[in-house]
Design goal:
The protein has about 250 residues and is α/β, with parallel strands linked by helices. About 45% of the residues lie in helices and about 10% in strands. A six-stranded mixed beta sheet has the order 1-3-2-4-5-6, with helices on both faces. Helix 8 links the parallel strand 5 and strand 6.
């Protein structure tokens, strides 16, 4: 499916939902109030994992609440630390990771609010964790693609030789905290963003996207019905890296 068709489908769905949008808004607000907001991970926003005497590879992680570590006590137990552990095991050397995350950011807000805070040094690997808020805030397929391509271009210019990895668009259908019919609406949009991302990243050099998985064990995955628990972050990082094993040649 082309971007034009994704955008047309989005606009038709928006028009169809307009008469019931007040109800959906109220339902969304009640769900947000019920779930509340988890605190972000505490502790250091950088660290080293793995063993060996070689110079550590450098990993930079940027993105939304999952990168900010909501649902985990520290960043080492959240997405950045768990991805770094998996990376170190594959390349056979230590990994020095740093994380820059903020709850609530979309791809556009990441460009505006987080990019200016990025470290100036060049990294060997970059992980981007975005998509949840662009789904929740109903970003159109055109907006999602435009903003993500701009962000990836910025990251590439800052890290010319890096492998850039992207986590999947959110698995809304698995969330026990989001009620119907909002869940179905958001899941359809997330699927659209997933297909959109698979298409535009396929033409980019050394950019690797982890598509929405078909089978996800959810027992113990969620901390609040939306964000991962520490077990969820471990399982997620493991699943991503096993997928990248098939699409990326790891080098130490």
């Amino acid at each position: 499916m082309s971007l034009t068709r994704w955008q047309t489908k989005y606009l038709l769905a928006a028009a169809a939902l307009l008469p019931v949008s007040p109800f959906l808004y109220i339902q969304g607000q009640l769900t947000r109030k019920k779930v509340g907001v988890l605190p972000g991970a505490t502790g250091e926003t950088s660290g080293i994992v793995g063993e060996g005497s070689e110079e550590p590879a450098k990993l930079f992680v940027i993105g939304e609440s999952t990168v900010a570590g909501l649902g985990a006590r520290t960043h080492r137990e959240a997405l950045a630390g768990q991805f770094a552990i998996q990376l170190s095991q594959r390349i056979g050397r230590p990994v020095r990771w740093s994380v820059l995350g903020k709850n609530g950011v979309t791809a556009r807000r990441t460009i505006e609010e987080l990019v200016p805070l990025m470290p100036e040094e060049e990294h060997d690997h970059v992980l981007v964790g975005l998509g949840g808020n662009d789904v929740m805030k109903l970003s159109s397929p055109k907006k999602w693609r435009r903003d993500m391509i701009e962000l990836l271009d910025i990251l590439r210019r800052a890290n010319p030789s890096a492998a850039i990895f992207m986590s999947n668009c959110p698995m809304i259908k698995l969330s026990p905290a989001i009620p119907q019919p909002i869940k179905g609406i958001l899941w359809a949009l997330s699927q659209s963003h997933d297909a959109n991302t698979r298409e535009f990243t396929s033409r980019m050099e050394r950019v690797y996207y982890y598509p929405q998985p078909a089978n996800v064990p959810i027992e113990g995955f969620f901390a609040d019905g939306i964000h991962p628990s520490e077990q969820g972050y471990r399982d997620w990082a493991d699943a991503m890296m096993r997928y990248f094993d098939e699409t990326f040649e790891w080098k130490n």
